[in-house]
Design goal:
The complex is a heterodimer of chains A (about 350) and B (about 160). Chain A is of the alpha/beta class and about 350 residues long. Chain A has 9 helices and 12 strands. Helices cover about 30% and strands about 20% of the residues of chain A. In chain B, helix 3 crosses helix 5. The chains are: A alpha/beta (about 350), B mainly alpha (about 160).
């Protein structure tokens, strides 16, 4: 017998364990309405390897009207950059509707995060951005490995508190945001639980009686337009190409130099937020044309929309139709698909 | 002209509005009152503050401090539902230092008087004036349909026709 060197190779097999005597999970499909408010934001960073936050801007919209617009700066922004931002807000008004705040606000990052908390977690409005995971990671103050359903992803902390010794600690009375990248166009995003949530935070979406449920956890309405544009078109768009594809009135502009805080760069960032908002309106209009009940924030791919169509047509998944279909056969099919894909 | 004053902090105001709405769900009082702030949370059946007061034999009017109690003791009587759902809600949008004025600053007290006067004016305009304007316009349409475009001719109302 020839002397054959046997090399061991690591292999991974994806499995789906079916618990014994598992009860089929009945998913309630409650009607979901898109919140009438949205917080749209975008960040700018240094262009070195750290990609640290320099500044960002946001708009808060209710019923299609911009009621507040502002800039926010990183807490460690150098004084000269901060001065550029201060001069900018002193000479530029906010682009708000009647009844909104006239003054363009300039906030420190932690002040912006308080607004973020009130709007996105407490108020449950839509959080809109283009490539949200990147922008979220720029405004986070700490990061850990995510657990549970998000294992393999990141858990971002945004709010901190001072402990007895004056050290900064993650605030457990505020939620974190768990992120798990599926691919370059999609990421799962969710608020995590927090200690001692208020009663109002335990009231489920679309509750008709307003009663809190102890086990309920609000997961957030994160609308990443990169993902939604992909789900609607089956193409990976940039903000610029998505604005063109959906005929956005104020599309993305270009800037000569990135990473340095200048008036031109602030204009560029504010324009990005405007373009993002207008794109969100266009994409939501497009999505509304589909007679499906899938939450727009859960439309991760064209297949999500396809599956939602099947549900709307009354076509249920195989295991709901044939609950006694042998799981082992399904496993073999699944494994063959896995082999072909890999 | 806007029917509401400019909001000072739209995000906080939005959060208070949706939280109040979430807490009462899709319920309303038997009298038709559906403003979340006017409904009594966790009442079963859902009841508004006015109906609860009536049921208990209490006055349905509240004494509202237009400039907030910390700044000026002047009060005006307002229906309890409006107090809770309109006037107090408007005060929550003030800077908390002005609303609470813990150090009794005379300057903040005056700022509160200005804000309170403006809020109360908007409330009175909406309840006393604007609803009547809408009523007149609807009645005008009705009378035109019934009696033609010059429905006031040969009536006592002719003396109110604008001169010129």
């Amino acid at each position: 017998m020839p002397d054959v060197e046997i090399k061991s190779l690591p292999i991974a097999v994806r499995i789906y364990p079916q618990p014994e005597n598992a009860e089929p999970v009945l998913r309630l499909r409650k009607p979901w309405r898109v919140p009438d408010a949205m917080l749209v934001f975008d960040t700018e960073t240094r262009i070195d390897a750290t990609q640290r936050l320099t500044f960002g801007s946001y708009r808060f919209m209710v019923a299609g009207q911009c009621l507040e617009e502002g800039l926010f700066s990183g807490d460690d922004l150098p004084e000269e950059d901060r001065q550029v931002l201060e001069n900018y807000v002193a000479t530029h008004p906010a682009e708000t509707a009647q009844g909104g705040v006239r003054q363009l606000r300039l906030l420190m990052l932690r002040q912006f995060l308080e607004k973020f908390y009130r709007a996105v977690y407490k108020g449950r409005c839509l959080l809109v951005g283009f490539n949200l995971p990147f922008d979220l990671s720029r405004i986070a103050c700490d990061v850990r490995d995510a657990r549970g359903q998000f294992a393999g992803g990141f858990s971002l902390g945004f709010w901190s508190r001072l402990d007895k010794d004056g050290g900064e600690r993650s605030n457990r009375f505020r939620p974190r945001i768990a992120l798990k990248q599926i691919d370059n166009k999609r990421a799962l995003k969710s608020f995590t639980g927090r200690n001692r949530p208020d009663k109002a935070d335990l009231i489920p979406e679309e509750s008709t009686d307003g009663k809190p449920e102890r086990a309920y956890r609000f997961r957030g309405h994160f609308l990443d337009l990169h993902t939604l544009a992909y789900a609607l078109t089956d193409k990976s768009h940039s903000l610029e190409s998505a604005c063109e594809a959906f005929s956005v009135e104020h599309g993305k502009q270009s800037v000569a130099r990135h990473g340095i805080v200048t008036e031109e760069y602030i204009d560029y960032n504010r324009r990005d937020v405007l373009a993002t908002w207008e794109l969100a309106v266009k994409l939501l209009e497009e999505y509304d044309k589909h007679p499906i009940t899938l939450q727009v924030t859960k439309a991760y791919s064209p297949a999500s929309i396809g599956k939602a169509y099947l549900r709307s047509m009354g076509i249920t998944p195989v295991f709901e139709r044939q609950p006694k279909f042998p799981q082992t056969i399904s496993g073999i099919f699944g494994f063959s698909v896995f082999r072909r894909e890999n | 002209m806007p029917r509401k004053l400019r909001q000072r902090d739209p995000i906080a105001m939005y959060q208070r509005r949706v939280t109040a709405a979430r807490c009462v769900g899709q319920k309303q009082c038997a009298c038709g009152e559906a403003r979340p702030e006017a409904l009594i949370p966790s009442s079963n059946p859902t009841i508004c503050a006015t109906c609860k007061r009536k049921r208990n034999g209490h006055s349905v009017m509240d004494k509202h401090h237009p400039a907030a109690k910390a700044n000026n003791l002047t009060t005006i009587p307002v229906p309890v539902n409006d107090h809770r759902a309109e006037l107090s809600v408007a005060q929550y949008d003030w800077p908390s230092e002005t609303l609470e004025n813990p150090d009794r600053s005379p300057l903040l007290a005056r700022a509160a008087c200005i804000r309170g006067y403006a809020d109360t004016n908007v409330y009175l305009m909406e309840t006393l004036l604007l609803s009547h304007a809408e009523f007149c316009e609807l009645l005008e349409e009705f009378l035109i349909q019934k009696f033609g475009p010059r429905w006031w001719e040969n009536t006592e109302l002719e003396r109110f026709v604008p001169k010129g």
